[in-house]
Write a structure and sequence with these properties.
The protein has five helices and 15 strands. By secondary structure, the protein is an alpha+beta fold. It folds into two domains: 153 residues, 3-Layer(aba) Sandwich (Rossmann fold), CATH 3.40.50.10790; 93 residues, Bacterial fluorinating enzyme like (Elongation Factor Tu (Ef-tu), domain 3, Beta Barrel), CATH 2.40.30.90. It has a seven-stranded mixed sheet with strand order 2-1-3-5-4-6-7, with helices on both faces. A hairpin with a 5-residue loop joins strand 9 and strand 10. Helix 1 runs parallel beside helix 4 and helix 2 runs parallel beside helix 3. The protein is elongated.
């Protein structure tokens, strides 16, 4: 069964998590989504997990750890998500909103507080719950233990929501939810909510932006708008950085004006 890992740990700490997983489930197929989430950036981790989880097969267990509250009273949770079209996937991590957008993108969710210490490692570090709690829980679920064995079901889990951009007269007003490695500005306008055609003119910060289907249809250095592979409207610069051109960062407001 596939077990994915996502964290802000860099290239050292994930090895310990993999060792714990393989000690419980030697046949696990471990896939690294990324360990390069910006440190402590829960929203970035939530977006990347949401953008990738839906491509994994039924039964996949996603262990995600971006956890600035590790060792405090924040809870650990396990989530089961499924829909009529997609059988169950599982999400393991801290109760700080990180898991919820991805789980909801799969379907209906049930959330359980992880409290069954019999499933933890014997010695629990106050700073590494990824190794001592989340990795073993994920491995046991992957191996077939029922998720209800981890603890009681809860309804007061923390929710992280990227919101939805709004169309107000001739403008789209929303938020930057992620800046990717290329400097593309990913907004909270879902692609299906906009009806632009290739060649349509938009304005962002008084700069003309052409809507296109992909980057290479514009000249190098020109800004463009498109619906990215993640399904959200993004502002990009062909062979350049839109974040730098428009001086935007994650969480900033963004206004896109429609030129008639």
């Amino acid at each position: 069964m596939a077990i994915t890992l996502l964290s802000d740990f860099g290239d050292v700490y994930p090895a310990s998590m993999k060792g714990v997983i393989l000690g419980i489930d030697p046949g696990a197929n471990i896939v690294d989504i990324t360990h390069s989430i910006p440190r402590h950036d829960i929203r970035a981790g939530a977006f990347i997990l949401m953008a990738t989880a839906k491509y994994y097969p039924s039964g996949t267990v996603h262990i995600a750890v971006v956890d600035p509250g590790v060792g405090t009273k924040r809870r650990a949770i396990a989530v089961r998500a499924e829909s009529r079209d997609v059988e169950a996937q599982f999400f393991i991590g801290p109760d700080n909103g990180l898991l919820i957008p991805a789980a909801k993108s799969i379907g209906e969710i049930k959330v359980y507080e992880i409290s069954n210490r019999a499933l933890f490692r014997e010695n629990i570090s106050g700073t590494f719950h990824g190794r001592d709690i989340f990795a073993p829980i994920g491995a046991y679920i992957s191996k077939g233990i029922g998720i209800e064995k981890v603890g009681e079901r809860i309804n007061d889990f923390k929710i992280l929501d990227f919101g939805k951009g709004k169309k107000i007269k001739d403008s789209l007003q929303g938020e930057v939810i992620y800046i990717d490695i290329f400097g593309n500005i990913i907004t909270n306008f879902f692609g299906k909510s906009v009806d632009f055609q290739s060649g349509d003119e938009l304005m962002v910060d008084k700069r003309k932006v052409i809507f296109s289907s992909s980057y290479g249809f514009c000249e190098e250095g020109d800004p463009l708008a498109l619906v990215g592979s993640h399904g959200y409207l993004e502002i990009a610069v062909n062979m350049g950085s839109a974040a730098r051109m428009f001086c935007k960062k994650q969480g900033d407001e963004i206004k896109i004006f429609i030129v008639k």
